[in-house]
Amino acid sequence: MKQYSVTGMSCAACSARVEKAVSSVEGVTSCSVSLLTNSMGVEGTASESAIIQAVKDAGYGASLQGGSKTAESENQPLRDTETPVMKRRLFSSLFFLAVLMYLSMGHMMLDFPLPSFMDGNHVMMGLSQLILAAIVMVINQKFFINGFKGLIHRAPNMDTLVALGSMASFVYSTWALFAMTDAQYKGDHDAVMDYMHEFYFESAAMILTLITVGKLLEARSKGKTTDALKSLMKLAPKNATVVREGKELVIPINDVKKGDIFVVRPGENIPVDGVILEGSSAVNEAAITGESVPVDKTTGDNVTSATLNQSGFIKCEATRVGEDTTLSQIIKMVSDASATKAPIAKVADKVSGVFVPAVITISLLTFIIWLIVGQTVGFSLARAISVLVISCPCALGLATPVAIMVGNGVGAKNGILFKTAVSLEETGKVQIVALDKTGTITNGEPKVTDIIPYGNCSEEKLSKLAFALESKSEHPLAKAVVSYCNGTGMKSADVTDFKAIAGNGLSGVLDGRNIYGGNYNFISQYAEISPELHDIADQLASEGKTPLYFADNNELAGIIAVADVIKEEAPQAIKELKNMGIKVVMLTGDNRYTADAIGAQAGVDEVIAEVLPDGKESIIQKLKKKGKVAMVGDGINDAPALTSADMGIAVGAGTDVAIDAADVVLMKSKLTDVSAAIRLSRATLRNIHENLFWAFIYNVIGIPLAAGAYIKLFGWELNPMFGAAAMSLSSFCVVSNALRLNWLKVHDAGKDKKLKNVVDLTENSSGETLAVTVMVKGMMCGHCEARVKKALEELPFVDSADVSHEKGSALVHAAGAVDRKVIKEAIKKAGYKVTGFKE
Predict the structure, then answer these.
(1) Catalytic amino acids?
(2) Once rounded to an integer, what is the mean pLDDT over residues 447-476?
(3) Residue 830 is inside which H or E element, if any?
(4) pLDDT for residue 531
(5) Which residues contact 534 (CB under 8 A, 6 or more apart)?
(6) What is the DSSP letter of 356?
C-alpha cells in the first residue's frame, strides 16, 4: 500500500470525493482516504502521477509520502502543522471581532460610548462594521478558497457551508448599508434605523471565528488520537554503536546493515533487531510488548529494536535493519490500519456524499418558504444562514476514523496489533475461537514430568539409560529428556549401533547391552510390560502426558513421562472467552487421550484431536457454518487456517508466516490477549456507534431548529452565531468521546457481556447430536489413523472423525443421518475393515 498526503480536505464530503476520484483511476484496486490524518492509502498498479492528477482534478492536492527512513520522516504526516496557523488566525480574528462587537452590540444594546467621528453618523458606523468584518473574512480566507473551489468542482464541503453562510450575511449587510446611505441622503430617519437592524456584519465575522475555535479544538483533540503512534516513532534510537575493524563507531541508525556487529551498554536502547553473540542482560521489552517485567537474555537469544538494555553489556549481530525491524513493522501496521476504513464507515461516507448538497437545498427552501409566509428578507436570510452553519458533516466523517485511530493506539500500547480497520471492527463479533494447542495453549516445549523406575532399576539408572539413547535423537520428546538430564549435571554415556525407528522408538548398544526406548507397542516386543505399569502409563496419558518406556537387555527399566504443559494464563484466558459468550475449540494433532486431558485442564468447550496439519483449514470451514470464527495459532502449519478463518490471530512469538497470514498479532504471546483484543474491538465498535448516533441526532434536531420549524410550537429561534458555535462543538464532542477509549483497561474482564447469539457447537442441521463409534480392524500406527480419518472426513455427511489405532475405533461426528454402508465402503477403500458400530 502506497501512502499519500492529501491537502485541502475539510470534511467527510471531501474525503469521499477524493476516494471516488482515485478509485476511478485505471489500475487502482483499493483506495482509502483518512480525514483524520489527511492521508490516503492506495493499492494497485496505477502510476503515482495518475493518482496525484486525479486528486488535483477533484480540487485537492496530493503528494507521495516518503519512505520510513527515520522516525522524523515517519512522523511527518502526523505532525500538527494546522494548529499553530489556526491559533494565529483565531487570535487575529478575536481582536477585530471584539472591536466589531463593541460597535454593533455594545453601543446599540448597552449604550457604550463611540468615537466622536461615529457619534450620530450611522453610515460611518456601518462602514466601520463592514471594514472590520471584511478583515476577519480576509484572515479566514481559507474557508472561502476551499469552499468555493469545492462548489466550482461540484463537490461542496463543510467549508462551502461556512463560506456561503458568512458571505450571505456580509453581502446582505452590505446591501443594507447602501440602502441606509440612500435613506439618510433622503432624510428618512425611520428607514435608516430599520436598515441598521438589518446589519449582520457581526454574524459574518462571528461565524468564521467560532468555526475556527471549533477547528482548533478539533485539531488538538485529533492530535491526541495519534499520540500512541507518535510515541512509537519516538522510540526508534537515532544512533547505533557498531564494531568495524576492531573499533567501536557510533553511526546513524539508517547506516546499520544486516550482519553488522553492534554493542549495547546498560541503559541504552537496542538499535535494531539482532541476536546476542556475547554477554547477558535483562531487557525491558515494554515498548514493544507492553510487558513491564524485564526478560533475561543470553547468548543466542533474539533482541528487538527500541527495547531497553537494563543491566549487562551485550554484543549482537544485526538480523533486521531499516524498515524490516520489529518496531518499523509495528509502526507500518498501525499506520496502515488507521489508513484503512471499517465497514461501518461506509454508512457515514454514503450520507456525507449527499449531505452538503442536501443542506444547501434545505437552506434555499427555508429562505423561500419564510418569504412566502410573509417574513422579511432579513429574518428569512437569518434562518437560511443558521441552517448552513449548524449542519456538520465533519461529525459524521470523524465518527469512525477517530475511534479506529484511538483503538489502534490503545492496542499498540498493550502489544495488540490490528492490521486493518476491518480487523479492529470484526474481532469483537467473533462467536467461536479455535485455539491451536502446541505453542498457544501449551508452552510448545515438552518437559519431563514423571520418572517411574521398574523392578531393580533405580531412578538414576533409568535417567542415564534414557539420556544415552535420547541424546542421539532429534525428536522433541527426546530433547525434553536431554534437557532434564543436562539440568541435573548428568553426563551422557556413548551409545553404539544407534537406530531410530520412525513413529515407534530407539535402540542402541550401551556397554555391550541392548537398550531400547519408545512407545508401548515397540517396547513390548523386547520386554514384558506388567499390567500395573501399563495402568500407570494409561493414568499418565489421561493427564495429557506421553509415557516413554525403556528396556535394558530385554528387561523393563521403567517409564519417563513427558508433557507439553499448558501456559499458566491459559485457563483464565479461556474462562474469560467463555464468559463473553464465545465457544472455545482446541485443535491438535495429538491422540484423543492426551488432547482430552489438555482440553479438560484448559477448560475448552470442545476438543478436536488427531487433526493433520492440512486438516485444520477444513475444520475452520466447518466451524464457520455455525458462527464467526477466530483462529489463534503460531506455527507455519497454522497459516492456511489463519487465512481461512473470519479472523486470524497470531501470537508474536510464532513464525513470520503465521504473523503475515493473520489479521491480528499478539506481541506478548499471551493467551489472555485474545480476550483483550476482543474486548478492545467491542469497546471501539460501541464508541463508533455512539459517535454516529450523536452525529446523526445532532443534525436531525439541529437543522429543523435552525430552519425555524419549532418557532410556532415552542417559540425557539436560533441565531446564526449560536448555530456556528454548535457546529464547532459537534466535531469536538465526537473526537473527545473517541478519546475516552484511552481509559479502557483491556485486561479488565469485570464488565464483559455475553453475546446474545451464542452458538451451539453440538447441533447439526437437524438440531440433533449424532456421534457413532465405528470399530475398525487393521490399523497399526498413526499413519493408519490418518488414512482412516481422511477417508471418513471426505464423506459429505461427516463433520469430523476421531481415530485411534490403539482402541481400533473411529468416533464419527455426523451432520445428518449416518449412512453405514457408505462408511464401510470408504474404510474398505482405505485398506481397512469395519467390524461393527456403536451408538
Answers:
(1) 436
(2) 87
(3) none
(4) 85
(5) 520
(6) H
